[in-house]
Amino acid sequence: MGFANVSEWASCMDAGRFHITTFRKQVASAATVANDFVDYTYFAGNPVANFYASSPLEAAHIEANKGIHLRDVGDSQYIKDFCVMTVASSATGTSNQNQRLLLADYLMYYPFVDTDAIGEQQDMVQTVTLPRYATEGGQIMCVAQSAASTVGTFTLSYTNQDGVPGRTTQVTYTKAVSGGGAIVTSNTNSVAGSLPFVGLQAGDKSVLSVESCTFSSPGGGLMAIVIVRPIMHTRATQECRRTTTGNLESYGAATHMEALIHMPINEVKRGAVLGVIGLGNAGSLASSILTGVLTTQWSI
Amino acid sequence: MGFTSIDDLTNQITNNGKSDGFIYQKNFPAAGTAGHWQHLINAAGSPPAATFGGTEATFTATDGTWSEGAVQLGGDVDPATKHLLAAGGSIVAAAGAPWFVYPVDLVGYVKLTTTNVTTTGTKTVTMTPISNTSAKVDRYANGEGLRMFVAAYAAMGANAPTMQITYTNSAGTASRVTTSGCVSTASAASGTILNSGNAANKYGPFLPLQGNDTGVKDIENLIWGGTAHASGSVIIALCRPIVSLPIPVPATGLFNLFDYVNTIPSFPKLPDGCNLQFLVFNTAATTSGGTFYASGQYGWGG
User: Could you give the count of Cα atoms lying within 13 Å of A271 in the half-sphere of its Cβ?
Assistant: First the structure.
């Protein structure tokens, strides 16, 4: 149940219907490049790293403890505020500045897709279905589970939001990446075409499941196919750091998004596994830290 | 009541003088740990360092007149209510940035020392449940909106036992429990919030309550599991979160101000009896001896 008016929304704090949580994730040391998207859930910190480690090609749900902590309340809770900061990997590092960030509900994944298996249809095993948004579906994100050496090409066969199977994604490229956690997809054969999500067949809005994956040229690695539901966008602007030589200088910024003022009230469904997808803008995100505070509220 | 309009706010401040401010300054008692929350209640500064007196394993209520150190907020204004109009802070420390700061109203604490820390099992707490009277301890009726954390107020010894608090929720239902499996922090410095951290089974800044619970009326016990801390002294703090402040810029002490009238018009409430204290989240390890400054302005109508 949602809120009838601003008064109901504002009363949540007095009524104790709120939850405050922090998160802190540090990108691994493998370099990314400008215009690479990364999946912050893959990296160490709090919550713990989410390596998509389960039986190959079998649909699986992401454990709750891999997501930003939420209370298990009601049908839904709603984001009151979301504040983020990014920490440079060194006193002089600037390459993590100006990141575009997407908070998403991680629904389901198919791990260890072999991006070298050209000409072979890799069939997914539908051991589970979407735990949330079962009829609305989500977007497909391909996350590297290893370094990848070359540019591959693939399509996916999936079931769309109307339950129609046999739909085919756009021909999508994988990029060469230095390690797990990078989102490998691109609509061209270079990083310039990086996309967070795989392009769907014309007319489709989202997917309920992925049936198979077929590579036509090898990508030289492993990837997980992840279905996520985007919730809200924000950004991390200036990196937080302090120089250590010469004239000592400090840099940093926080981005605070408050519902009703800077963004709409965004819903988070019960059981949601929240994670952040980031877009590197100025270079490698390696060893940088993303930290934040999330406050949610719920109605009676 | 608060303010009926911006006109009323302007009138209350400019004609009726119903506005005042506070300042706060603390030196970190020890180096903060990356990914941990830290309280500054026993840190030296203004107000002075608290020592957490009181009886072992017994709830000690605190309010704005707490003799061990409370921020002066100008006394009671009932039936009006005080609201933050603006607040901000800065930290001067060579390392540790960026930080999140969380002002809280400390309603009380339970201190546990010696064998209540160095042995596992259930540590029963003596507490008169929070009620719905005009007493300061009841300023959040039946504990509505209150949260808990477990924090060191002396250096902790080795080992990290699990911790779980049994409590009565604000609806009066007893034997409710915080999330199981939460792990304390081994060898933590004084001030560390032990349930927070940068690993699995860590929750910060507050221990998650059970189910739909919205507050804490009574702390019943703390259960330590696994291998007990080798030494140390802790408090179970019962508090009401007020608002979050980010401090992104390292070292220089650049002041970060939040405006709760225009930028984020939320008017966070400071009830009569509010014992304003601050929690700090260290993204990196904070240097021992760093200094935190805060100030703010509040107003009231009625």
Answer: 10
The share of chain B scoring above pLDDT 70, in percent, equals: 99
- Secondary structure of residue B117 in the 3-state scheme: helix
d(CA A288, CA A25): 8
CA atoms within 13 A on the CB side of A11: 10
CA atoms within 13 A on the CB side of B286: 36
At residue B5, does pLDDT exceed 70?
yes
Å between B144 CA and nearest CA of chain A: 6
pLDDT at A288: 96
What is the per-residue pLDDT across B37-82, written as a single tens digit (0 to 9) for each? 999 999 999 999 999 999 999 999 999 999 999 999 999 999 999 9
Residues of chain A with pLDDT under 50: none
Interface residue A143 vs chain B (CB under 8 A): no
The residue-averaged pLDDT of B163-169 equals 98
Q: How far apart are CA A169 and CA A188, in angstroms?
A: 14
Cα A52 from Cα A47, distance rounded (Å)? 14
With residue A6 as reference, give the H or E element that holds it: helix A6-10
B97–A242 CB contact, under 8 Å: yes
Mean pLDDT of chain B, nearest integer: 94
Buried/exposed B10-47: b ≥16 CB within 10 Å, e otherwise: eebbeeeebbbebebbbbbbbbbbbbbbbbbbbbbbeb
pLDDT at B119: 98
| Range B3-20 average pLDDT | 95
Is A18–B145 a contact, with Cβ atoms under 8 angstroms apart?
yes
B98 burial level (CB within 10 Å; 0-12, 13-18, 19+): buried
Query: Which residue, among B241, B243, B205, has the nearest Cα to B87 in the 3D structure?
Result: B243
**B246 and A46 in contact by Cβ < 8 A?**
no
**Looking at the predicted structure, is the pLDDT value of residue B290 above 90?**
no
pLDDT of residue B287: 67
DSSP, collapsed to helix, strand or coil, labels residue B138 as helix
Chain B residues whose CB is inside 8 A of the A65 CB are 200-201
pTM attached to this predicted model: 0.94
Strand partners, A258: A81
- C-alpha B89/C-alpha B40 separation (Å) is 14
Average pLDDT over residues B144-172: 97
Query: Which of B94, B295, B100 minimizes the C-alpha distance to A254?
Result: B100
The amino acid at A9: W
Tokens 């099992």 correspond to what residue?
A: B121
CA atoms of A180 and A175, how far apart (whole Å) = 12
Tell me the C-alpha distance between A79 and A172, whole Å: 33
Strand partners, A227: A108, A140
Amino acid type, B219: I
The 3-state DSSP class for residue B104 equals: strand
Q: How many CB atoms lie within 10 A of CB A106?
A: 26
Closest CA to A21 of B69, B16, B260, B179: B179
